[in-house]
Structure formats: C-alpha cells, structure tokens
C-alpha cells in the first residue's frame, strides 16, 4: 500500500508511491533507495553518502527509507551501485573491472585503485582520472620494411603481446594507452630492424653472396638468417626496455616475411652465377693442385736422374781405379 506523508498538525498532503526516490513537503524530505542504489544528500551544507554506516541512525527508518527535516537540502542521484562511473555532488563513484585499474590523484600524488567499487571526495582533493587496462590489446606491426646485409630489402609483419605488471610505473610514464602502445611499437621496430641489418635475409647465409665460398655454410654462420634467433634476441631487448616501466612482454612473433620481389626474381640468376663462379674457383684450385703435384713429380724425377748419374759416375771411377 502507498504510505501517507503528514505534516503536523496531521495535514494530509498526497499519496506517494512507495518507491519514489524523493518526496518533499516543506522542510520534510523522504528518501527511498533500492538495495542496489546509492545517492548523496546535502543537509545544511554537509554531504552524506546513502547508504552508509556513518549515517545518523535517527534519519534511517529501515527498508531503504530516510527522513530529514531541513530547508537547505539537496539530493544527487540515486544511481545504481554497479554504475561504471558517476559524479554525485563532490563525490565521484566508479567501479573498476577485472583486467584494469582506476587511477587518479590524492593531494597531487598518483593513486591506483584495483578491482571493486570506489569513491573519492573532490572536497578532500581526491580526484579520479580514468580507467587503465592492464590486459592490453596486442601490437600488430604490418608491412615493416627492413634491410638485411648485402642491401636486401624485405617486408615483415610482427605481433607483440604484453601486459602491465606495475600500473604505478606504467601510468607514471604513459598518460594513456596510445602513448604506451606507440612506445612498444617503436622499440620493437627499432630492435628488429637493427637485428636484421646485421644478418643476411632469412633463408640465406653470407656464403650465398660470396663467389669464393664453397656451397656448404661455414661454422660461423650457425645463427645467420635464423628467424628464431631474431625473435628471441628482439624479445630480450624489448622486454628489458619495457620492464623498467612496469610492462611485461609476453610474446614477439614474426608472422610474415616477404623478400623484395626484384631480389627473388634475380636470386635464381645470381645463384647460377655464384655456382659458376664457385665452379671456376674450384677448377682453378684443382688445376693449381695438379700443377703443384706435376712440379713436385718433375723435381723428384730430376733428382732421381741426377742421383743415378752420380752413381754411374762413381761406379765408373771406381772401375777405372781398379783397372
């Protein structure tokens, strides 16, 4: 049934709905809040949050009903307790969800709020600035141009995932996620481009560009052109640079590597040229070795012949003496 509001001496004013949030008659105020609602009332200039354990119990009538007698009265709200963010008078209410933090400032000092419902009072120099996701979207770098050793150009796609482990450090350095995102992309680009510039393109070794080298790669080329090495080395460096700002790098992956089309088209011809050059070099080596062996054999034959001549002369001399 609908309740009656009476002002002494028992004057009937009106019939109210039981769930009407605010009813006023002169200096009489009736406030009703549902279990999932909050509000702020200002009574003679003093703000109070409803519901609150700090309330004057004389005004609380139970079942969400509050009665005030006051001419200077204001009410802000009510709003749902689950509201994402709402400002009621000098109070700022906000709910921090999983995977994020709230941040703001208290007396000029950075403040971080974890998951849950929170409230700050601007009159106490407490200010809420916004929400900051700690499980952030990955960085996708598309068509990054790189130049490897021997001036071979390629285009690659890079995937980077990361999370915020220390929001205080991250928010203190980056005002918003765009700055953070741009920083991760920038250091990833720089590191991968640096690593690629020190190596031949993927699938090739230095020997592939050296006509003097034999077809089998040398032992010093173990890591050359290895995409796994590039990923691991870049992850180590990027993680070191980002960790100082409370960021934990989860993964770096090169999802696409496309060599320059002109290089691919000329690679076959160059490979044939290199093979021919290597064949010529190998033939020259074989010819040189053959000549060395022939010279050694000729010298040996000449020495044998000289030895035999000396032997014959010695025998002839000995025979002459005996005769």
Short description:
The chain is an alpha+beta fold. The protein has helices spanning 167-173, 177-197, 227-243, 261-322, and strands at residues 4-7, 11-15, 22-25, 28-32, 37-43, 46-50, 60-62, 65-69, 73-80, 85-88, 91-96, 100-106, 109-113, 116-121, 126-133, 139-148, 152-164, 247-259. It is built from four helices and 18 strands.
Short key terms for the protein model shown above:
18 strands, 323 residues, 33% helix, 4 helices, 3-stranded antiparallel beta sheet, 4-stranded antiparallel beta sheet, alpha+beta, single chain, rod-shaped
Write up this protein.
By secondary structure, the protein is an alpha+beta fold. Helix content is 33%, strand content 37%. The protein contains 4 helices and 18 strands. It has helices at residues 167-173, 177-197, 227-243, 261-322, and strands spanning 4-7, 11-15, 22-25, 28-32, 37-43, 46-50, 60-62, 65-69, 73-80, 85-88, 91-96, 100-106, 109-113, 116-121, 126-133, 139-148, 152-164, 247-259. The strands form 6 sheets. A 4-stranded antiparallel beta sheet has the order 3-4-8-7, with no helix packed on it. Strands 6-5-9 form a 3-stranded antiparallel beta sheet, with no helix packed on it. A 3-stranded antiparallel beta sheet has the order 10-11-14, with no helix packed on it. Strand 5 and strand 6 (46-50) form a beta hairpin. Helix 2 (177-197) runs antiparallel to helix 3 (227-243). It is rod-shaped, with a radius of gyration of 44 Å. Mean pLDDT is 84; it is low at 215-225.
């Amino acid at each position: 049934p609908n309740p009656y509001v009476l002002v002494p001496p028992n004057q009937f004013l009106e019939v109210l709905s039981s769930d009407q949030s605010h009813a006023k008659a002169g200096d009489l105020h009736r406030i009703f809040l549902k279990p999932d609602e909050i509000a702020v009332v200002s009574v003679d200039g003093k703000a109070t949050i409803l519901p609150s354990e700090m309330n004057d119990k004389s005004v609380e009538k139970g079942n969400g009903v509050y009665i005030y007698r006051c001419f200077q009265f204001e009410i802000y709200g009510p709003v749902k307790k689950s509201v994402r963010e709402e400002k009621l008078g000098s109070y700022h209410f906000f709910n921090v969800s999983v995977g994020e933090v709230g941040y703001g400032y208290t007396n000029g000092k950075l403040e971080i709020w974890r998951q849950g419902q929170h409230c700050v009072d601007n009159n106490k120099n407490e200010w809420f600035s916004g929400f900051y996701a700690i499980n952030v979207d990955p960085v996708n770098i598309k068509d990054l141009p790189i130049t490897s050793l021997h001036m071979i150009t390629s285009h690659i796609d890079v995937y980077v995932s990361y999370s915020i482990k220390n929001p205080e450090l991250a928010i203190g350095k980056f005002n918003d996620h765009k700055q953070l995102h741009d920083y991760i992309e920038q250091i990833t680009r720089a590191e991968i481009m640096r690593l690629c510039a020190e190596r031949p393109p993927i699938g090739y070794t230095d020997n592939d560009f050296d006509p003097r080298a034999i077809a089998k790669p040398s032992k010093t080329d173990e890591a050359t052109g290895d995409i796994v090495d590039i990923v691991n080395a870049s992850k180590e460096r990027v993680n070191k640079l980002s960790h100082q700002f409370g960021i934990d790098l989860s993964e770096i992956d090169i999802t696409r590597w496309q060599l320059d089309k002109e290089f691919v088209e000329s690679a076959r011809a160059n490979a044939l040229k290199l093979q021919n050059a290597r064949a010529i070099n190998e033939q020259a080596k074989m010819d040189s070795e053959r000549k060395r062996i022939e010279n050694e054999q000729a010298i040996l034959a000449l020495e044998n012949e000289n030895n035999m001549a000396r032997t014959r002369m010695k025998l002839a001399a000995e025979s002459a003496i005996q005769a």
